[in-house]
Amino acid sequence: MPKHDPTVRLMHMRDYVRKAMAAIEGKTLADLENDEILSLALTHLVELVGEAANKYPVGKQKEYPQIPWLKIISMRNRLIHGYDSVDYKILWDAINKNFPPLLAELEKILPPD
How far is Cα 3 from Cα 22, in angstroms, rounded to an integer? Predict the structure, then answer.
C-alpha cells in the first residue's frame, strides 16, 4: 500500500488505539497519575491518533460520519498545546470509554490485518 494512500492513516489510528488500550490493561487511573512513563506514553499515543485523523482527507472523513473526527483532532490539539497541564482523568476516560467503540468502527472500515 503506497505511503500516501489515506487508508494508511486509518491503519495508524487503529494501531495506536490498540496500543493505548493494551497499555492500560490491568491499570488504574492512579497508575496513570503516578507513572510518568505510562502517562507520557499514553499522552503520545492519543496525540498520534489525533494526528493521523487530522491527516486523513476531510472529504474522505465525510464517508465515515461514525468516526468523531473533530473530537479526536481536538483532543490531539489540547494535548499538544496544553502539554504542561494534561488532565489525566480526561485522558483515562478517552482511552477507556471512547477508544473501544472507535476501534470497532476502524476495524469495520479496514481490511483485517
Answer: 26
